[in-house]
Amino acid sequence: MRPLLRWTVALVLVIGAAGWAVTGTSAPPDDYAALTGDAEAGRVTFALAGCASCHVDPEADHSDRPVLSGGRRFASDFGVFVAPNISPSPQGIGDWTDTEIMHAIHDGVSPTGAHYYPAFPYGSYNRAEPQDLADLVAFLRTLPPSDAASAPHEVSFPFSIRRAVGAWKLLFLSDEPILTDPATDQIARGRYLVEGLGHCGECHTPRNALGGLDHDNWLAGAENPGGEGRIPNITPGALNWSEADIVAYLDSGFTPEFDVAGGEMADVVLNTAQLSDEDRAAIAAYLKAVPAID
């Protein structure tokens, strides 16, 4: 039994060491440091990414210069995640380098090398172009600082093990496009907006038991993590609006049935209303091009 025990212990140690190695974090790309961000371009990128929708204090009003003090709570099957302070202050991200912020947004890695939970939608943000990230960081630097402390997440064992998020990334994190063959340049632009910084699939696509997106049912609707209602199917199999209807909704929040966007979608419309007419049309064209799911 002793040789068997020794071999078993050795095998466990080897597996553990391999698991530790593959669930580590990567370093940021070298080319991030060479980029110069444009704050005005970043203002639009900021709106597309929906940063204010999550990181403005839930008791505060939205404005053109939001205070990103955090505090909003997001319930999930894995616990409650609390949006942190990402304002340009020492309590937020003011002491981070531009490269560290871009690495966090794109790869879900903190300046200390820890994994962020995928409640932070870097699973979509990782499709963003580096220049868009640099522009976003430049705009974030212009916003008012907040000295509010970030509240801890309320996540119990085993989900509290940050290193395990590395395994989640190995299983589910990809920057490959979902719609593989856009028929036009407009649809390709819509794909970039929807699948990337717009992160529409993070809410409108169902997830598996481990929280990974079910790409076979892309944008086909999902349970609301907060427990109220269902997030709708926005593929052509359920959404029968015309492209013009979608464009108008993303601009005004009014539906073809003379209803109005409510709940979290109202925040989304505040963001998409800041995009250009061309980008709203690109989003509409993309939504009409994805596979229809009943």
UniProtKB/TrEMBL annotation:
InterPro entries hit by this protein: Cyt_c-like_dom, Cyt_c-like_dom_sf, Cytochrome_c-type_DH
Domain Cytochrome c: 37-144, 185-291
Gene Ontology MF: a single term: electron transfer activity
Range of residues in the leader sequence: 1-23
Keywords, comma-separated and alphabetical: Heme, Iron, Metal-binding, Signal
Keyword Ribosomal protein assigned: no
One Pfam family here: Cytochrom_C
SUPFAM superfamilies per record: Cytochrome c
PANTHER family (UniProt xref): ALCOHOL DEHYDROGENASE CYTOCHROME C SUBUNIT, BLL4482 PROTEIN-RELATED
Protein name: Fructose dehydrogenase cytochrome subunit
The organism's taxonomic lineage, starting at the top: Bacteria, Pseudomonadati, Pseudomonadota, Alphaproteobacteria, Rhodobacterales
